[in-house]
Amino acid sequence: MSENKLLKVTIDNITIEVEPGTTILNAARKIGGEVAPPAMCYYTTLKDSGGKCRTCLVEVAAGSAADPRPMPKLVASCRTTVMDGMVVKNITSERVLDARNGVVEFLLINHPLDCPICDQAGECHLQDLSYEHGKGASRYEFKRRTFDKHNLGEYIQLHMTRCILCYRCVYVADQVSTERKHGILMRGDHAEIATFIEQNLNNDFIGNVIDVCPVGALTDKTFRFKNRVWFTKPVDAHCDCETCSGEVQLWMRGDEVLRVTARKDEWGEVKQSSNGTPGWICNKCRFERKKVSDWVIEGPSKVNRHSVISQGHYEHLQKPSETMPRVMGGRDPKLLMDIKDISEVNQVELSEIKGPATSQNYKQIKKSN
Ligand code: SF4
Ligand code: FES
User: Fold this and answer.
1) Ligand whose nearest atom lies closest to the CA of 56
2) Would the CB of 162 count as within 6 Å of ligand 1?
3) How far is the CA of 210 from the centre of ligand 2 (A)?
4) Can you name the residues that pair with 233 across neighbouring β-strands?
5) pLDDT over 70, % of the chain
6) Across 228-256, average pLDDT
7) Considering only CA atoms, which of 271, 254, 223 is closest in space to residue 120?
8) How wide is the angle at C-alpha 110 spanned by C-alphas 80 and 199, nearest 5°?
């Protein structure tokens, strides 16, 4: 058998062929859509990531063509490689959905549901996951974990109570930036992201920890509380950067650049840049280039239409041709009429109505006028 023979795998009744060594998660991502299990700790470009959060559990109904016995326990799809003839169930398995509900319940034991004030809301993987698999109430009756505050420097804010200990930010510091000053300290229920003896995270590429954090544990101090992400408009832009590829996404409100991030793919992972290198961006692009004139804007970013960010975000926008300047020879109107004063229709002062306007009190006021 040649080493590169493709392997057949069936996931949720769809059969595809993949290279040997492909994980079930990546095979499912090739099919796409809901067949791909959620992943909170795996990150394609970060070596050794995965195997921590258990959100990607799937059922292996047949191990391989040679040994079609089912695997007795659910397996982490990000860490299990495909065998020829393997049959996998994700959304078609009751056991998987039940386990995923349990995993979300565990993740939410200590994670506060503070989405209304969290900067990650609208692009948080745990928020999506709890929306799909979470319960309305918690069965946990004990005290939640609390932590001493750690200051990570002028750009990155840590909210340890939101951390799900996925290790992605630790791998970014190890593999992407020039040095790592933070890690997971302690064990078990005491485990936390921290720097050992207060240190700042301040080397060139460390801002990427914000992009990989699946929750709102690490957020951008320059964007904190500035806006809700669904009110901003993401556009692709680039600049001639001496440190990174300079290919970014700007999150704009009007002409103001509120936030700069790396560009992400459909799985929420940082995309490759156009020259094929990983698309990690440097701190200067992320935190300091906040003027429109710093960038060449390419156009609106593609936003998944299921994302809340697609609200009010339109591509290929066609502006209606304005009538006023056309009929007025290019000039803006100098005088605007108050429709209430000149129309006979709007003769009711709504502020005179006590309580909400209904057909009853509206008619009374109209009569008295
Ligand atoms: S801070 Fe974010 S990226 Fe780092 S381990 Fe916690 S959840 Fe993961
Ligand atoms: S994504 Fe597989 S265990 Fe976290």
Assistant:
1) 2
2) no
3) 19
4) 252
5) 84
6) 93
7) 223
8) 85
